[in-house]
Amino acid sequence: xxxxxxxxxxxxxxxxxxxxxxxxxxxxxxxxxxxxxxxxxxxxxxxxxxxxxxxxxxxxxxxxxxxxxxxxxxxxxxxxxxxxxxxxxxxxxxxxxxxxxxxxxxxxxxxxxxxxxxxxxxxxxxxxxxxxxxxxxxxxxxxxxxxxxxxxxxxxxxxxxxxxxxxxxxxxxxxxxxxxxxxxxxxxxxxxxxxxxxxxxxxxxxxxxxxxxxxxxxxxxxxxxxxxxxxxxxxxxxxxxxxxxxxxxxxxxxxxxxxxxxxxxxxxxxxxxxxxxxxxxxxxxxxxxxxxxxxxxxxxxxxxxxxxxxxxxxxxxxxxxxxxxxxxxxxxxxxxxxxxxxxxxxxxxxxxxxxxxxxxxxxxxxxxxxxxxxxxxxxxxxxxxxxxxxxxxxxxxxxxxxxxxxxxxxxxxxxxxxxxxxxxxxxxxxxxxxxxxxxxxxxxxxxxxxxxxxxxxxxxxxxxxxxxxxxxxxxxxxxxxxxxxxxxxxxxxxxxxxxxxxxxxxxxxxxxxxx
Length: 515
Fold this sequence. Notes:
Elements: H1 5-37, H2 56-62, E1 66-73, H3 98-108, E2 133-142, E3 148-151, H4 153-156, E4 161-165, E5 171-180, E6 185-189, E7 212-217, E8 225-236, E9 246-249, E10 261-263, E11 269-276, E12 287-291, H5 292-305, E13 311-312, E14 315-319, H6 322-328, E15 336-341, H7 346-350, E16 357-361, E17 364-365, H8 369-377, E18 384-391, E19 394-401, E20 403-404, E21 426-428, E22 433-437, E23 444-449, H9 454-457, E24 465-469, E25 472-473, H10 477-489, E26 494-501, E27 504-511
Antiparallel strand pairs: 1-2, 1-4, 2-3, 3-6, 4-5, 5-6, 7-8, 7-10, 8-9, 9-12, 10-11, 11-12, 13-20, 14-15, 15-16, 16-17, 16-18, 18-19, 21-22, 22-23, 23-24, 24-25, 24-26, 26-27
């Protein structure tokens, strides 16, 4: 069968058109399938920003030097009847109250039978066991390759046996070299195991508020825990003792971190975890470190002799308030006011008396009583130092041969005050006081205080004994009146009264009468 040329041409065109349509449809169909199995997506969001440095390199290098410290001791049973009656610090039994028991478990850090969850644990089943039992757990760190390590005194103070748990879990026996309760520091030693990875103390004078820090330790028995934060404050006084000068950090620190190190980004120890502020018992972002400068000196002494010998001035001191400064003619509130000089102290032997304001030691300014305690404590016993005092409106330098700070601070000896004589009270109306001569003839006994007076505002109470005014002994109201008149004549706005209460002395500045 033959096809005409024109008909063939038309047929070919139809076939080509159909093929083209199929090709287009196929392309469209293929595209739909391809899009369904492998969609073409937009690029993910990525921000090219400066990257914050991490702490991994620091942690990797310092972690082998940080250890857990387990403390054991022989503890006598609380009672003979086998009960676990709770006791107060003086050994008196406490009521068997479930809520009170739970409070003491949390406050003292008692954990479960495996010692997890706290610094301390107590197991009644060990009452008849003569072997030491676990009583505390904290942290520490090596400071030498031959096995010396640092921790807190409060971690080891109850212990008779000590175990150091290394970063890799290995346990080693340690012995106690020495403690210093005043700074809450202790040194342990691990012997005969080879060389240890150790860390060094930083120059904490270069530590600034806002610097990054890393704390490594053993919180709640969880060894090798790392937290990070910043230095929140410096020079914190938390009422722990005369050498308070803590670094405050916001890195998370909990029970069990005690004795552990806080590092800077160079892997140096800037402080030692020793306390936290916590209404809840856990970290709220306020922790306190013993500064490296304090720890370094104390640790050196402990390694050398097992104890710390500090210089002792033998005086009781108090802050200089603005009123006191005004009454003494001082231009600032710097210094430490001597409230009494102990009879057997080196200060009194050298001539320092109550009413003196210590302003310098060896040419170094004394900003406060705390600063004076630190300056004197830094010198060795027997050291001769120049102490500058403000007395009678002028500076005077006294050379003092320091003594040895006693293990328990001595109190100034004083005869017990006799009961106030009720007869013939006299009024010091300008001061809001009523006084009478003391029975032993020394000073004036306060018998009444006007509740609206400056004396009441400053804490003077009936029974207090006024022994001097502006460093002049007083035995009658005329002595007080004269001292006030002299103060007014000198252009001063207040007088400084020395008050004795319960065998202790303090100074109170009272404004003189106006007009």
